[in-house]
Amino acid sequence: MIQQRGNFDWMLKQLADGVPGVEMIVVLSADGLRIARHGGDPDAADRLAAACAGVQSLAGAVAQELPISNGDMNLVLIEIDRGYFYLMSAGANAYLAVLADVTCEPGRMSEMMRDLVVRIGAHLTSPPRRNGQTV
Fold first, then answer.
1. Does residue 21 contact residue 101 with C-beta atoms inside 8 Å?
2. How much is the pTM?
3. What is the rounded distance in angstroms from the CA atom of residue 81 to the CA atom of residue 10?
4. Can you give the pLDDT at residue 43?
5. Per-residue pLDDT, 110
6. In sequence order, what are the residues at sequence separation of 6 or more whose Cβ sits closer than 8 angstroms to the Cβ of residue 4?
7. Taking each helix axis from N to C terminus, what angle separates 106-120 and 5-18, rounded to the nearest 10 degrees?
8. pLDDT in tens, 54-112
């Protein structure tokens, strides 16, 4: 799990402050459990984390169909009505998700997310689980 969560929270806030239009940021495990969030309410963050598990699985399956790909999902960007959804691989078994409105510039957001992942990637890991227990 994430260590030094207080320090991690300010980094999520820094991402939100660095790009206009951010509504919610969620860090999640590969199995869809919320690790941390900034913005939004906890229930919405939990629902987003659960949905992201399916999105990352789908993206990984699609990536495996490209012969030159290693099958890993790096970044998913979905334009939604009046906004954007971003999902980025952020370490072993961890992902960074962002919901933003239309004022958000997609290129800037993906750049800021990559910078955040590089800076704190070692803290954005979640141990694998089996039957709800850490392995």
1. yes
2. 0.83
3. 29
4. 96
5. 92
6. 123
7. 160
8. 998 898 888 888 888 787 778 999 999 999 999 999 888 889 999 999 999 999 999 99
- Residue 69 C-beta-side C-alpha neighbours within 13 Å: 12
Residue 55 in tokens? 């999105």
21 and 100 in contact (C-beta within 8 Å)?
yes
Structure tokens at 70: 């290693």
Residues whose CB falls within 8 Å of the CB of residue 60, separated by 6 or more in sequence, listed in order: 71, 72, 73
**Residue-range domains of the chain with CATH:** 5-126 (3.30.450.30)
Q: 22-29 and 133-134: which strand pairing?
A: unpaired
* Greater model confidence, 31 or 7: 31
Cα 72 from Cα 63, distance rounded (Å): 6
Distance between CA 7 and CA 62 in Å, rounded?
A: 35
